[in-house]
UniProtKB/TrEMBL annotation:
MKRN2 opposite strand protein-like C-terminal domain residues: 1-125
Domain of life of the native organism: Eukaryota
Lineage, opening ranks: Eukaryota, Metazoa, Chordata, Craniata, Vertebrata
One Pfam family per UniProt: DUF4796_C
Name of the protein in its database record: MKROS protein
Length: 140
């Protein structure tokens, strides 16, 4: 990732299938997201929500709002899809919806900053004569 193009956003079910929305509608992909940044949205102790997650996501993805002709690159896109799902789940738990800015600040930016630092370091090391050796177990 070069930092100059838009990122694509999706939501996974419990089996790792990524639901994502674009100009062709909702897609379900079991592969092709190996280079993604994974951002946890649900605490592990929220077992009750985790039990219903897949059903909620499946039903949400079938709604009319996510038909291909409704896609609009700037205002109704993959980010809108992810945020709307998160807010649907929040609403079901009696919580206030997040704005785009709140969602970005709370969930996306911390993880993308960390990934950016890692990618920058990786690129710098890749362009130098550096050899990285894993430490032996007793040295760790």
């Amino acid at each position: 990732y070069d930092g100059h193009s838009d990122l694509h956003v999706g939501i996974t079910n419990s089996q790792g299938v990524v639901y994502n929305y674009d100009q062709e509608g909702v897609h379900r992909a079991a592969s092709g997201w190996e280079q993604c940044i994974s951002i946890p949205l649900v605490q592990p102790d929220m077992w009750e929500l985790l039990q219903h997650w897949d059903k909620l996501l499946q039903e949400f993805s079938l709604e009319e709002a996510w038909l291909p002709h409704r896609y609009e690159e700037q205002q109704h896109n993959c980010f809108t899809f992810a945020l709307a799902f998160v807010n649907r789940v929040r609403q079901g738990r009696g919580r206030e919806p997040l704005s785009k800015a709140q969602f970005t600040e709370s969930f996306l930016l911390p993880h993308t900053r960390e990934a950016s630092r890692y990618l920058t370091l990786h690129q710098q090391l890749a362009h130098r004569d550096v050899y990285i050796v894993p430490l032996a177990e007793q040295e760790q």
